[in-house]
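Subgroup meeting minutes
Present: P.N., E.W., G.H.
Scribe: E.W.

1. P.N. recapped why we're keeping a running log of single-chain structure predictions: easier to compare across weeks, and new members can see raw inputs and outputs side by side.
2. G.H. added today's entry (191 aa).
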Amino acid sequence: MTPTNLAAGFAVGLVVFIVIFVSVTTYNAIVALRQRIDKAWANIEVALQQRHDELPNVVAAVRGGMAYEQSVLEHVTRLRAAWSPQQAVNQQAATSEATSAALRQLFAVVERYPELRSQENVRALQAEIERLEDIIADRRELYNDSVYRYNARIAQLPAVLLAGVLRWQPRPFFKASPEDLERPEVNLSTA
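Output recorded in log:
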């Protein structure tokens, strides 16, 4: 073998090694980002499930004192029944946002009933729902950050080539509805 052939073979081998190395590291990085998204979404689902588990307690606590506001309670109950962890991200997000809006409406109605505001269990349930809403918001932020990183990565070279071959698509963001952008303060204390 001549030195020229040896150098050419070495150059081709080096290029092949670099292509394989870049492909493998890019693939692994994208898989890690996809796993982070799945983990973040699973954490959101846990918080959503906890909130949905609390909804019957909230409805039961305020049902007797809100005889003329049954439509609000029924709306919260329908939304609770509509949520399912088997739904797509965008469907779960829409149901979650509708549930948040219905809960804000419910607690605003509770404000009009002094006998409900003074009940310790109603205040405790409201505090628990607010705690869960804060957790959901934090987890949504982490999820959206992970989606951003993944979507940006699969749109950049060289990952866009690998993503095209493997048919990796951008993931959807968990978007807030316009009315969710302003969070009203509801105070149930008996001041």
